[in-house]
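Hi support team,

I submitted a single chain yesterday and got back a structure, but I'm not sure I'm reading the token output correctly. Could someone confirm the output below corresponds to the sequence I sent? I've pasted both exactly as they appear in my results page.

Thanks,
R.
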Amino acid sequence: MAAAQTQRPRTSASKSATWRDVTPAAVVLVGGPEDYLGARAMDRVRAQVREAAPDVEITRLNAGSYTAGSLAMNVSPSLFGEQKLIEVEGLEAMNDAFLADALKYVAQPEPDAVLVLRHGGGVRGKKLLDAIKAAGWPVVDCQPLKKDAEKIAFVTTEFKAASRRIDPDAVHALVNAVGAHLAELAAACSQLIADATTGVDAAMVDRYYGGRVEATAFKVADAAMAGNGPLALSTLRHALATGADPVPIVAALASKLRSLAKVAGAQGSSSQIAKQLGMQPWLVEQAQREVRRWTPEGLVRSIQVTAEADAQVKGLSRDPVYAVEHAVTVIATSVRGS
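Hi R., thanks for writing in. Yes, this is the structure output for that exact sequence:
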């Protein structure tokens, strides 16, 4: 049991931890609105406690429907001295009874118990959160991954942790295909890691997830940006005929053009530019290769027509399909040699 024993921290400042490296303590706060990362953090603590104490007694409580005295009852040492793990969900909706009991407990926790608290965000229970941080217990902040760079880093780390290789183009393709929801992105990583006998490349990602709307949008954008108007238009029409929304397709075009515009006027090595612009170095290198095929006038014209299409597909036009087709055509014909 000694491996799972917890001690009071010696510092008065909270110990910041990530969901990947959090370890058991008498009190662990898992905060933030990203449920998937919160679940992963709690899974990690639970697995470590079970590894150290296979006979651990696990209790789950809800702070919103909490009954006074439940926490003290569940953390009390048992006759046989089993390790206790108490997981409490819903702190963002905690009732007054839980707040009172938790404040009392955090001030003097049981040495053979691990209390994991999940707070989904908001101001409810701020006094308790402040008390946990002031006592120096581990705090995991689970915020949504909003930027593509964050999602790319997530995918890269998932494969690295599994000792599997994934090509940079495949990472980008996977984020484009299933990156709208982190849980789906993580599931896709797990599936590819389980199925791939060697490394994962863009072709494999396309076989698994090429039918997704986001992936189709970037196929249209890739063809247009390559100057292949017929392929871009045929892919676009097929996507729209099978129910794709024009909005993400225009968004994919805009994303590609923004990358080119950022890199076009940048000076320095790809790594220096990547640091300046907050982009991945391989994305900078890709944009540098692509921007050579564009004149400044062609790039400006394409950005303008895409901005117009964006407004039109969001309600300013009665014919959003024409707006997208027009934007794709202008972009494809603006590439040198097309």
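A quick pointer for reading it: Residues 1-7 have pLDDT under 50 and may be disordered. Let us know if anything else looks off.

Best,
Support desk
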